Amino acid sequence: MRLSFNTLKYLVILAFAVLFLGVYISSDSVAVPAAASSGGAPTGRTGAPGESSCTSCHSQTSQTGQFGILAPSNYVPGQTYTIEVRNTTADTSRLSWGFSLTALTAANANAGTFANINTFTRIRTGGGRNYMTQTTDGTFIGQTGGSAWTFNWTAPASNVGPVTFYAAGLHADDDGGTDGDQTYTATALMQPGTAVVIHHGFADFDGDGKADLSIFRPSTGIWYMNRSASGFAAMQWGIDTDLLTPADFDGDDKTDLAVWREGPAETAAFYILESATNTVRISRFGQTGDDPSLVGDWDGDGKADPAVFRNSVGSGESYFYYRGSAANPSESITYLRWGQSGDRAVRGDYDGDGTQDAAVYRPSNGTWYIRQSSSSAARFDYWGVPSDTFVNADFDGDSKTDLAVYRSGVWWIKQSSNGQTMHIYWGLNTDKPVPADYDADGKTDAAIYRNGVWYIRNSGNGSLRVENFGLGTDEAVPNAFVH
Q1: What region, left, alpha or beta, does residue 44 occupy, with left being phi > 0 and alpha being psi -120 to 50 degrees?
Q2: Quick one: angle between helices 27-35 and 5-22, nearest 10?
Q3: pLDDT (tens digit, 9 = 90+) per residue, 263-277?
Q4: Distance between CA atoms of 218 and 224, rounded to whole angstroms?
Q5: Which 3 state secondary structure label does DSSP give 204?
Q6: Could you count the other beta carbons within 10 Å of the beta carbon of residue 105?
Q7: Contact, 318 vs 340, CB < 8 A?
Q8: Does the predicted model carry a pTM greater than 0.85?
Q9: How far apart (Å, rounded) are the C-alpha atoms in residues 167 and 46?
Q10: Are strands 74-75 and 182-192 parallel, antiparallel or unpaired?
Q11: What is the pLDDT of residues 35-81, one digit of tens each?
């Protein structure tokens, strides 16, 4: 049937009349008809405990398709997730689509909040519960093969135990009647989880969750750090030709001083001063021409690992190499074939599982190629142009690295939490981007370094911070992983 305004209006009026004659009409039940004119299923039709499903209004015929809910298996309190409801069928007589979904705790109470991300869904409330359903546009009238709706769900602010999504779906024949339709129900369970701690290693030298203003002076090899919790510190570590690779190599949640010194194979090495024990570690790794900015937690044990990206010569494949610290007493090297000649490695954890992903940007076609460590699945995306400066980091606080570039003073960020673009106008074309979390709100802040002056835009409250620290010839440490 056609999920049209007139049909829904008739059903709502009929239901209203029955309720008026037989039962006391609460304020909730009166509110439902007023919202029906924008399209969408009536409330209380998801098949959840105490509810009916689409069969309350539509006669059921033999099912020829599938209906399901795609949701993560775990949630972290307060985090936002994208949920998808999907219909699929090879039955070409199905020409109109609908759904209704709610999220409940084990005690059948509302769990979390919904948010629309396009014009195909809307939020409804009835009987003390919140629902997500389709709009008139979201019925996709005349479309064959199925339909899909995506929207955001923000988890409760605290652990409420398991959360179950209940949904009912409709595969209608769009003939104007209530017979000949197919109804479905589905559920998805999300268990409470713990927040993934991603050891970015941007510049938190005292472990308070805030990035510190810090610079490396090539002329002397001295690091200067204005630590937000522990005050000023200075340490000589490295020489002027070294590349900065600061990260948490010992797992104490503090950034370690570290540099990579190029050379032939078996000579090139990472020189690391581990903060937990103040001991020196030398890891011979890589060779001249490698990109050592890929250091990070590649094996998920909470410690950064030595790593390099080696671009291929000619038409061959490129490689990521890392030496894992988890269950690796022989210090063996793992390699991943990913990329081709001319690609640029782009450091990050793009799937939010706490480990680094092999990822490259291909200037020849403007495409990001990401190998997600959680599933080994390939992801392709388009963002930026070859002349951009790449500032990929977690700007929206969902524990996933966002695709982000800096261009002529503008930050162009594709948020992984909702797929939407965020623009931040901050800086000049000649500035050095120094993205990091300076206010400890779990989100990377847009910041730039200009001739010894730091300009920081705090994401927590939007306040601006300007501080003098360093010289124009110094290297800003949070710029180490920016290319």
Answers
A1: left
A2: 160
A3: 999 999 999 999 999
A4: 11
A5: coil
A6: 15
A7: yes
A8: no
A9: 5
A10: parallel
A11: 222 367 788 889 999 997 766 566 666 788 999 999 888 888 888 88
The amino acid present at 141, given as its one-letter code, is I
* DSSP string for 29-42: HHHHHHHGGG--PP
For the chain, state the CA radius of gyration. 27
For residues 101 and 406, give the distance between their C-alpha atoms in angstroms, rounded to a whole number: 39
| Rounded Cα distance, 299 and 301, in Å | 6
- In the sheet with 475-476, reading across from the earlier edge strand, the strands are 231-236, 222-227, 213-217, 475-476
d(CA 173, CA 141): 10
Q: CA 381 to CA 451: how far, in whole Å?
A: 35
Residue 155 to residues 74, 111, 134, 305, Cα–Cα distance (Å): 10, 7, 21, 32
Residue whose pair of structure tokens reads 């030496």 in the numeric block = 323
Count of alpha carbons within 13 angstroms of residue 193, beta-carbon side: 14
Q: DSSP labels for 10-60?
A: HHHHHHHHHHHHHS---HHHHHHHHHGGG--PPSS-S--TT---GGGTS-B
- pLDDT tens per residue, range 347-361: 999 998 889 999 999
Enter the tokens of residue 358.
Answer: 């092999």
- Residue count of the chain, please give it: 483
